[in-house]
């Protein structure tokens, strides 16, 4: 069976459209930021509770909150795979993610900073924004 291959341009176009849909949805649905996000993050790191961290990230994602840099650094160190992580914590992280679901971290962390636990980097979002502008200018 042959494997389907997609051009980079098609993938970029789809990602740009997806980003536009998210921006349109965010403009329609406004939920007030919640102070519990920061409290949950700080407590989750201190108490070694990944469920609290993932829930706080999910709430921040839904309410369009940006997590402050000092707290983001703590979360990054806690979730980073650059050091030895106890197997029990890895298992609890997996279970927590099953409950909380997918978290779009690109919406809640400042991309002018580097965080170990975030895989999407600024150069990728810059690339998508550039591609979005190209598509907009070609549509005119």
Short description:
This protein has 140 residues and is mainly α.
Please characterize this protein's 3D structure:
With 140 residues, the chain is mainly α. The protein has one domain. Helix content is 63%, strand content 0%. The chain has six helices and no strands. The chain starts with 7 loop residues before the first helix and ends with a helix. The model has no long low-confidence stretch (mean pLDDT 77).
Count of alpha/pi helices: 6
| Poorly predicted spans | none
Structural class by SSE content? mainly alpha
Largest sheet descriptor = none
Beta-strand share of residues: under 5%
Question: What is the strand tally?
Answer: 0
Cα Rg: 17 Å
Give short descriptive properties of this protein.
single chain; 140 residues; mainly alpha; 6 helices; 63% helix
Question: Topology of this protein?
Answer:
Blueprint: H1 8-28, H2 36-46, H3 50-62, H4 69-79, H5 87-100, H6 122-139
